[in-house]
Amino acid sequence: MGAAERGLLRQGLRYSLILRLIVVAVASVVSLLLEPGPRPAVTAAVVVALNAWNLWYARYRLRHHGHGRAWPVVLDVLVMSAICLTQGWTTTYAFSPAENVAAPNWVMVAAEITVVAYPWQVGTAGLACVATTLLGAYLGGAALAEPGGLGLTPLDLWLVVEAALSWGLYRLVRRHGRAADEQVARGEWLRRSAAVAAARRVDETEYLATLHDTASATLLMVGAGVVPGRQDWLAEQAARDLEAIDGPAAPGGEVDLVELLRDVLRQSPLRVRWRGVDALRLSAVDATLLCHGTREALTNVLRHAGTDEAEVTLTADATAVVVEIADRGRGFDPARVNDHRHGVAGSLVARMARIGGSATVTSAPGHGTRVRMSCPLTTAVPVDTGADTGADTELIAVNFLRGLRWAVVVMSLVILLLLDLPKLLSNRDAYGSVATQFVVMAGFFAVSVAVAVAMWRGRAGPLGWWRWPVVAAVVALSVLATWTVLPEHRLGVAHWSEGDAAWWLVLLVLDSRIAVFVGLLAAHYALTFAHALLAGHAVVTVAGTVNATLIVVAYQLAVCVIAAVLRNLACSAARLAREEEELRTAEAVERQVHEYRRERFADVAETTVPLLAGLASGALDPADEAVRRSCAVEATRMRRIFAETADHAADTDLLLRELRACVALAERNGVSVSFAEVGTRPDVPLTVRRALTEPAVAVLATARGKVRLTVAGDVRTLTVSVVAQRPPFDMPEPDHDGVRTASVVDGDRLWIQTTWRGEP
Q: Fewer Cβ atoms within 10 A, N terminus or C terminus of the chain?
């Protein structure tokens, strides 16, 4: 059940119980004051007891949100049945010989408004039982009050009709509320899918940068022999790298950037001078990225600068935070940095660009290096899932209005054809012009049909300007119908338009403000009563008029209140749906990003984690040649992963991109690589690419001297071959059925070739 449907049921229950409280209180108190009945003391006691019971019952149902035990519902039906059965003690019957009916009394009003409120409390079968029980109790009480009985009258039948109409209104509005929830849910699914995809891309980018700054950098240093004599630091660093591999994304809220940076400096084996403020609060995401960038810059100093000293400076103003890392090492020429090196482009520049900042690297041979990272100071905003609350509000409101308007269309036609038409046909002598009554009835029928047609054609919102001339026509028809009722029959059964004509006003102004709604109803009833006063005759007494009017107007006002509540409910339902969507989206993002990490970086868990765990525990000696070789190969494999997802718009050949990244790393280690590419290359799956390049990656990671690497292919075949000094270990076999490996050893030289053939 969605937010709109849940809110509808909750609000419907609340307002139905409140409406019952008010209507029963008004009808009973007015009758007590004007027509106290044959036993005024008994009537007063019953009125007080009934209103006290209604108050307790409403509080109980609202406290339990419409649920709870069944006994209060059963007891409520028994209480109302007792009120109906004892109406001879609490009401005065004003009998109309002209129409052979008794005037409506407050007990009838109480029974009918109880039935109107019950669809929001019980199911269809329960409502049928309640309506049948109360109708039987009311007729039984009337028979006891008037021996000989008056028979089943149209006023009595109105209780059954109201039960059916109230049930229909409830079902239609709830169905359209459910339809709104389904549409919102479809939009939510699309937005959640987009949010998950975006989060996955962001997480993958940051995770790769984290791997580059942590595990990859550590393994590279071990493979290059940079860490002799630093075993304690290496063990701690490897342990931190393991935490980074398994760790979640950056936390939310704000953190102290200075504290995080000092932790990074303490973890570095370099002697780092710190210059900056004592504390600086910053978004946790921004602070984490700045710290990762600082760690990468210090790692580069350790690996490449030829110095064990560096300086970190933190400055901030009203618009930005700047972190600078400087060293006085050997420096380099930034223009000669290979595009496929991930460190500067992926770990610094791209990382800062993701938070709206920038990163620059200034260096020259012999003059050291300075890395400058700038992050704008912005107010943190919640993650936007893309949900448009305004659009959801409109969607829910339109569905609610459509359901309510269809319900009123059906109610108006049922009342007109099944209740008012029989009254007209059985009381023809009560009208000055029967033909005029039929014309009025035909006019009301035409209004219902016109609104139904407009809705059928897709108009779910306001009906447009044309409804106001129709409102005027409805008022004119109501006046005409009242004018042609004979004075002695006005406000009686034959005066069918007295309250029922207002249903067409309800239908036309359903989407208007409540003041317009109530004003039109008041004007309609004022005109009707004015006619009766001018004629000087009426079938019923003042109390009877109040009760007769309450029977109909209470239901019309209920629809008015429901319309107003639904407009407000649409806003709260959309807001609640948005909050629920954000929770579900956050859960989906966390779950699916975690699952994607597990699948996407399975190789890291299988090969990188054991090496880091061994280095962290001391089980692996970084000075051991085999350990260094394994770390170098693994670091090169990770460089291949970085290249798989690097954003090089001009380089669409993923296999070449990955190999170039490995070649660049080998060249940085002093290996001379001759790289040739021949022919065309078909697109191949990730598993095939990895199988094809695995032997070349192992050779490039451990080679000394010269290496010749060749990639050749055509539309269906792809071959990667490498010639290098024979490594002191067995070459890995490609783990893919479609890839074949051939190798030749000639003295101290090794030639190895992997080939993939596609479908013919």
A: C
Helix/strand/coil for 315: strand
Name residue, tokens 């035909």.
Answer: 442
Q: Rounded distance, CA 737 to CA 691, Å?
A: 9
- Kind of pairing between the strands at 281-283 and 320-327: unpaired
pLDDT of 381? 36
Q: Which residues contact 257 (CB under 8 A, 6 or more apart)?
A: 280, 281, 282, 287, 290, 291, 314, 321
Question: Which amino acid type is present at position 374?
Answer: S
Order across the sheet with 320-327: list the strands: 271-275, 309-316, 320-327, 369-376, 358-363
Bridge partners, residue 287, by sequence: none
The residues near 486 (Cβ < 8 Å, ≥ 6 apart) are 430, 431, 432
Q: How many whole angstroms separate alpha carbon 167 and alpha carbon 124?
A: 8
Q: Report pLDDT for 651.
A: 46
Q: State the Cα torsion 155-160-162-165 to the nearest 10°.
A: -140
* Amino acid present at 91: T
Contact in structure between 585 and 192 (CB atoms under 8 Å): yes
Bridge partners (DSSP) listed for residue 101: 96
Residue 344 makes CB contacts below 8 A (sequence gap 6+) with 334, 337, 361
| Tens of pLDDT, residues 243-262 | 877 765 545 567 889 999 99
Q: What is the pLDDT of residues 381-418, one digit of tens each?
A: 333 444 455 666 666 667 767 777 888 888 888 888 88
